[in-house]
Amino acid sequence: MAKTILVFDFGASSARAMFCRYEDGKISLEEIHRFENRPVTENGHLCWDIDELWEQMKIAISFGVFNGGFDAISIDTWGVDFGLLDKNGELLGKPVHYRDERTNGMPEEVYARFPAEDLFMKSGIQPMNINTIFQLHYLAKHETNTLFRAEKMLMMPDLFAYLLTGQTRSEYTEATTSQLIDAKAKGWNIKLIEGLELPKRIFCPIIHPGEVYGTLKQELADEFRIEPVPVYACCSHDTASAVLAVPTQDEHFAFLSCGTWTLFGTELKRPIVTKEALDMGLTNEGGYGGTTTLLKNIMGLWLIQETRRYYKKQGEDYSFADLERMAREAEPFVSFIDPNDQSFSAPEDMPLKIQEFCRRTGQRVPETVGEVMRCIYQSLACEFALTLEKISALTGYKYERIHMIGGGTKDKLLCSLTAQAAGVTAVAGPVEATALGNGICTLVASGEIESIAKAREIIISSGLTEEFAPTDHDKWLPALEKYKSIITK
Fold first, then answer.
1. Which of 14, 153, 241, 419 could be cross-linked to 202 through a Cys-Cys bond (beta carbons 3.0 to 4.6 Å apart)?
2. Does residue 123 contact residue 183 with C-beta atoms inside 8 Å?
3. Angle at the Cα of 154 from the Cα atoms of 151 and 159, rounded to 5 degrees
4. Which residues are catalytic?
5. What is the C-alpha to C-alpha distance for residues 360 and 354, in angstroms, rounded to an integer?
6. β-pair type (283-286, 170-171)
7. How far apart are CA 470 and CA 365, in angstroms?
């Protein structure tokens, strides 16, 4: 009989519920509900609308029951954000969005006690404004009453699991994004937590991918008229789930997870916590089975999404296909941006910010829509190529291909330019890598599939990939040198 997992895959702008089924040696995905994830403003902060998301989850469960039922539930989300529960198990407020400005200036205050390099050496996590550690420091300094009233801190997938089961646990891969996990001990860094004057009681016991949070609360089971199914901890950080779906049998592989953020990295048996890795902008996040995902966070499709939104506000409702076509038609290698420049992190007016960056760095300013888009595309491709070069140098492994996974792989121009810039074949797919990895983890944990290696073998045979050869790499060599000179200005 088929085994069906109800997979919840939460992204920063939308979420979906999918059936991940394993039957007759094949894995399939079926979307049963998709809903928007729109931030709201509460008490002056940009927040996640947890009440609406919870209602949509319950709708999805109802759809799942109506469409044949399921054997288990598992959840993945983005990293760093969290909710706080009081002593009665109630939320103290909506979880705050990582793009909220409350962490401005917080890293510098934390570094005064714990230097950035020391934090990296302990956690393996690249210091970024959005990290949980800096969000909690803000609360300790400016909202002490909130922190005093808090009994538990739950990262976003753990919070959704709590709503389903009533159990408070912290899944390991998600917890690593907080920068409060000791990379070697693989547990909460109590010395750091105490040094930041954070209450130890709020940090929940760690649960690892494949373990069970608990079963669906009886009142929910009664509401949906089902038996209390188990809620599994998958690799609940979406990047870690996506890595499980990389279609390869190679021990050492490079992946590029394309979404609002683009994550370029590799899977290792242990973290690399060196000054060199820190300076390269690399981070070590938790992976399945105690592995480490060494990667760089790159401001990926956010640049394209915000550019499209800007033109739509100007009355030009271009589709993503329109933007890709105009980029193809524009002259190549004219101007470049640093995708990781902080000026691009906030929403609004993205094309104007791109023009200003080019003006500031002495380049020809892109004027047309196609020129702006070409600038974005080729800059991302150059950044991907440079990151591959850095990771290869650091690990000592030569990567013969880049596995591009996630929704961004539907953009054929991005896949093609990545192959050209990096000089290696780009293998695009599967598109639904995160949801697939989520389901795979639970299928392996429940004994339906014997191992992750077997699951990857099944994905390889499913025909969900497309290859892009590096036919024009030589033409990119001068462009790569120009890009390097631009990002070091």
1. 153
2. yes
3. 120
4. 238
5. 10
6. unpaired
7. 28
User: Rounded to whole angstroms, how far apart are CA atoms 406 and 367?
Assistant: 30
Lookup: tokens for 470:
């590096």
Count of beta carbons in the 10 Å neighbourhood of residue 146: 14
Q: What are the phi and psi torsion angles at 373 (to 5°)? A: -65, -40
pLDDT value at position 463?
A: 85
* Two tokens, residue 402: 């880049």
Amino acid code (one letter) for 262: T
Exposed/middle/buried for 400, CB within 10 Å: 0-12, 13-18, 19+? exposed
User: How many other CB atoms are found less than 10 A from the CB of residue 311?
Assistant: 18
Nearest residue to 132 via CA among 169, 162, 107:
107
In terms of phi and psi (left: phi > 0; alpha: psi -120 to 50; beta: otherwise), the region of 89 is left
pTM for the model = 0.91
First to last CA, the chain: 60
Q: Could you report the average pLDDT of every consecutive run of 10 residues in the chain (489 residues)?
A: 93 93 94 96 96 98 97 97 98 96 96 96 95 98 96 98 98 98 95 97 98 98 97 97 95 93 94 96 96 94 95 97 98 96 90 98 97 98 97 96 94 97 97 96 96 95 92 96 92
**Dihedrals φ, ψ of 15, to 5°?**
-140, 160
How far is Cα 130 from Cα 236, in angstroms, rounded to an integer? 18
pLDDT recorded at residue 489: 72
